[in-house]
Amino acid sequence: SHHLEKNRIEKDAKALAAIRKTLEQNMNPFASTVDKDSLFNIATGKAVASKVSDFLINVVSMGHRQKLEFLSECSVSPDRFGKPIRRNIILNFASDCIKKVQKNSNSSKSVLIKMERNVFGRLLAIALDKKIDMDLCFSYPLAPAPPALVQCNGEMHKTPKAALAKYLTSNVSPSKPLRPDVEIIDGFYLLNLLGSSIPQTFGKIAEHVLSKICSTDASEIHLIFDRYLSPSIKDVERHNRQEIDAPFSIVGPSQKRPTDFNKGLKNFRFKDALVQFFAQHWEDESMIPFIQNKIVFITVQERCYSYRAFDGKILKQEEVNFECQHEEADTRIIFHIKNLIPNLTIVVRASDTDVLIILLGNIHKFSDHKIYLASSFSKKEDLKCYSINDLANSIGLNVCRALPAFHAYTGCD
Q1: Which domains are present in the chain?
Q2: DSSP 179
């Protein structure tokens, strides 16, 4: 067969590698976390409007139906063949491109400017045919937003965050601490990892999560969650992730969780209620076998609580030193490290590249600590542990201090 020839196999392998690279640099539509009921733009990672997805999915059947209608009309009236055919309104990914009305300062006319992917190609084609002063053209807005900064739908151009993390960690080999003193965990990262293995009732979920975090060798565990404020600088990004704001309450440990737990985690009211329930349920004496001789910290909004097992009871205490107004767990992790006693071995568990960058950007403040980041920067990667101190030494402290500003322009959400 032609497809089994060596040159054809090599060509197909290169094409497959190119597709895989494109998916890694943009969005993987086959990921388990992607909503199967939505159609996504791979380049932007954003779900298109329902009318666009309905049109694209049904375009073949619509065309077939219109063909049959046309043939039927022609069989009834031969004159129909020469009459105009109604034009279809085409809906596709470009339909989500942003638009802006630009008013002419010298007249009352308004011009609709669309964010078109091929605007400069069309302009070049016209310039080749007609004499056009390109300097004059470029002195006017040709798009509602700078194409170098935003995509056609108005979303900011961003390098995939994992690309920077993989580049930085390639400078050092993975290494694990022998016995960590403290483990700091991004709470929603942990819940997303548990995903499909999560129990059916909220009481069992609370036990399962506590059991997981206490299985570490560390004697002190910090479980840190995001806060959800409104309005927030994160509103646009949360909208892009299709996060929702729907009321949710947990009335007791026997209440059943949503059937699709990962989908439930897109509702920040659900996440807030879940964290509040953890903080309440872990006071129960049935949690003693999980906590044993460890100290567990959990953040709830701006507050932080600790749990210890003592004399057959759970001692819950509000930890004023760890209270803060930080919105995201990424920066709150650094705040917790700052308030720990000196000379500790600390393991941070988080997948977000932002955490890696913030750790490196602040490592000069924690020279007395040994800090490790345990993470997988994609679902298919195995968990790896890197020494932040070794990584900082390999790239230099000046580069480390510059990374947060660099990341804010190139990949931070």
Answers
A1: 97-156 (no CATH), 161-410 (3.40.50)
A2: S
